[in-house]
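Bumping with the actual sequence this time:
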Amino acid sequence: MGFLDKLKNKAQKAKGRSKEEAGRDTRDPYLEAEGRRDRMAGGAKQVGEQAKDAAKEARDTFKR
């Protein structure tokens, strides 16, 4: 819903992407898995924010 929440989610996805790449480069499967987990968590939170926005728009539409 908030701009900061969306920004934090994008930052988490970016951090996960870099961890995943670092894990691949160093052949560290644990770091790669941790990066994948961070990236997926950020994406899931982003979907939640989009659902909140859609619900708010629907509520505002029927409010009139």
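The tokens above came from a reply further down the thread. The chain has a mean pLDDT of 92.
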